[in-house]
Amino acid sequence: MEQAPLDPERQLPPAPLEPLGRSDAGLEATGGEEAEGSRDAGSGVDTMTENNFWLKKIEISVSEAEKRTGRNAMNMQETYTAYLVETRSVEHADGQSVLTDSLWRRYSEFELLRNYLLVYYPHIVVPPLPEKRAEFVWHKLSADNMDPDFVERRRIGLENFLLRIASHPILCRDKIFYLFLTQAILTEILWSSQIGPTEFYYSADSRLKALNATFRVKNPDKRFTELKHYSDELQSVISHLLRVRARVADRLYGVYKVHGNYGRVFSEWSAIEKEMGDGLQSAGHHMDVYASSIDDILEDEEHYADQLKEYLFYAEALRAVCRKHELMQYDLEMAAQDLASKKQQCEELATGTVRTFSLKGMTTKLFGQEAPEQREARIKVLEEQINEGEQQLKSKNLEGREFVKNAWADIERFKEQKNRDLKEALISYAVMQISMCKKGIQVWTNAKECFSKM
Prior knowledge:
The chain is mainly alpha-helical. It is about 60% helix and about 10% strand. The protein folds into two domains: about 1-195, PX Domain (2-Layer Sandwich); about 240-355 and about 375-454, Up-down Bundle (Substrate Binding Domain Of Dnak, Chain:A, Domain 2). It is built from ten helices and five strands. The chain has a three-stranded antiparallel beta sheet with strand order 3-4-5. A two-stranded antiparallel ribbon has the order 1-2. Helix 8 packs antiparallel against helix 10 (about 370-450). The N and C termini lie far apart (about 80 Å). It comes from Otolemur garnettii (Small-eared galago).
């Protein structure tokens, strides 16, 4: 698949954006001048237009999830979850944020947006979507995609997906992204007219071509080969880390719930003791509090696990960039090989050289030498094809160099983002574990004091 040219109509005017690392952050875009936009003065609500959308400070959020029932393409009833996407302007006279756009989106529409970005920006590490079904769960978590806790985590993940796009210096200016945030009727009108369904079929077919190119590229770029190995290793390491974390969560949950048994024993014991009753009752209370705290602890851990899962899925986004480069390199090598073959044919016709073990040699032996006029006509056709091939090869070389330049710049941006986010997540996780251990020490210290007073 050739790299799709960037359509100027799909790009909004550039606006510097502040990077967003967390799903609870707001998106802010600033511009040097105030854009002209329609405003409803009577209602006091801003109507954001394409021209002034990114020149204002705005905030994007997925604020609510709602379970709905409808009919699918097969006219069969289905249950799905819809998410409320809100866009607010925070540049208002009184400093308060004002709701400008609000619409409901299904998960499949988020998938459609990401597929579009993959097609039109193959050199960019496109942010991943949160998991559609729960993975790496421990036994107390439900794997049902309609579970309220899972839906809430996915809501946060979808919000983070939009904020990742909005904080990207190129993706944030895309017209389709703007329409995704502001136009309610999307699937029937927007995607059929603006994107074109054939692009996605072509993209899906390119996966087969990419598999073929992987094994047939003769001179792969060492940097992209190393990047592909790195993405595989990143996915493997994070997968193992998430599996270990799930096993530890199971074990930790059991340890905490054992303290609930201690609390029940101490409480029942206090009922039959006169002198030690108060101390045993207090100790049992501390054990019960400690046992019940594990639910909040593991809920906080899921937040950090979701941050790791995001970069687990980023590994596939890195491989998508590598596959695109392999396809371009494969097309370049095939074009060079075809050009060399045509030049050899032209040279053989010009010099009259005939290779014995070739199709030309066999036809010459069977039918004799061709007429000079035929040979001149074939040479002329080959020369035209050679000129076209040279232009095509030059174009592919330029396209390849531009792709490598843009892709590597975005990969460096991704690495900085990854190092920053994972460092912050792991430090926060360590701080949470330290706090959890301190609470455990405090509980047993309090229990010890209760026993000492008996």
